[in-house]
Amino acid sequence: MIKVSGRVDETGACTAIKDAAFPAPFVSGLEYGAPARGTWNIVHIGMLIPESHQIYVCAANCLRGVVLTAEEMGAADRLSTIAVQENNVLEGDMEELIIEGVSDILEKLPQRPAAVLVYTVCIHHFMGCDLGLVYDELGRRYPEVAFADCYMNPIMRKSGLTPDQTMRRQLYSILQPLEIDRKSINIIGNNVPTDESSELIRIIRENGYELKDITLCKTYDEYLAMAESGVNISCLPAAIPAGDYLKEKLGQEHLHLPLCYGFDEITENLNTLNEYLGFGPKEYEDEKSAALNALKEAKKVIGGAKISIDYTAVPRPAGLARLLSENGFYVDRLYVDSFTEWDKTDFDWLVKNKPEIKVYATVHAKMRILDRRCSEKSLAIGQKAAYFTGSRYFVNIVEGGGMYGFDGIVKLAGLMKEAFMRPKNVRQLIQMKGLGCDCCL
């Protein structure tokens, strides 16, 4: 029982990192959704396929969110819905509902889409809906359309692949085997393009390789051409299943070069790519010096102010916390519901060297009413950190913001410095869904 009046203590919603269990510091239970909407959802991600159309098959109350997301994006014409009603459950005609509903939509659209992403939900799995039959029939009726089976299924959140991992994998499920071009490289699983100035992109382009990325595709044919690349590079943990899937389906190699903040690991990642391309290793001394200088410049401005980091801003918050701590910044809080295995080394370092750092849940029910605000001027990295601390001084990014490598650290340090000098309107900014999603429209 949680009191809704009076002072609420932090028990269960906050712990010192030295006492935090890895990878899940908090007990799962009643959850709170903070009104920070910058992360991408399945609608935003699906829109990355050019010339595609999304169809959601679910109850009317579940349709509300996806419809509003499409409308907010200015892409309502690329989304349709089929409402599941009580009689469909009682009569067991789910397969017919999907087949005839999708057919009706396709016949009424002003132009036949190249690809259709059909999103089924938990009720279809509870009832044992024969989705194989559904897609076979749709393929027979509309052979010119590529259908992708996608899912809006909350029961997938706690076991197996998460909805986010599944969506990033299914985004590439339409691709079919092509003759491999060894001079072509894909970056997969990102929602925003990786910065052209990053060492990763420079290695690819400066050595004469063609870069393909769904965030750069303007036409459906450009998207299909991703199947000819010799290797897929994934940078986010959620993209790993997509890379493994495409290796099995298309015979493409998969290099996971994670977005990280440790200098040794960044160097190792870049040299993994160099080795794959047949080049020798580099030390990247100039790039390391540039990153250290950028951090020093940011420290001059931010000084000893408290810093909070949340998991929506960067995929490895413990790694960023370690980098900043090692360079003299005062990291006070992490807003993380659970850590990934990739954060374990940096988590252990923080336990040993910065045991007092607080770890807050973001979905614990107490976070709705907990007195958690910072009384003094502080810097937040990420929308959830800004919301929970009440700081107007925040770095407004999600999923690393397209920054990567030493160049990414230089840019992030610059954003931290700028954020600390110029307050933002938190309420106005964090309620906007899918930060940066205009890149796919």
Automatic annotation (TrEMBL):
Pfam families: Oxidored_nitro (PF00148). It comes from the Bacteria. InterPro entries: Nase/OxRdtase_comp1. Residues 78-358 form the Nitrogenase/oxidoreductase component domain. GO terms for molecular function: oxidoreductase activity. This is Nitrogenase component 1 type Oxidoreductase. It comes from Clostridium luticellarii.
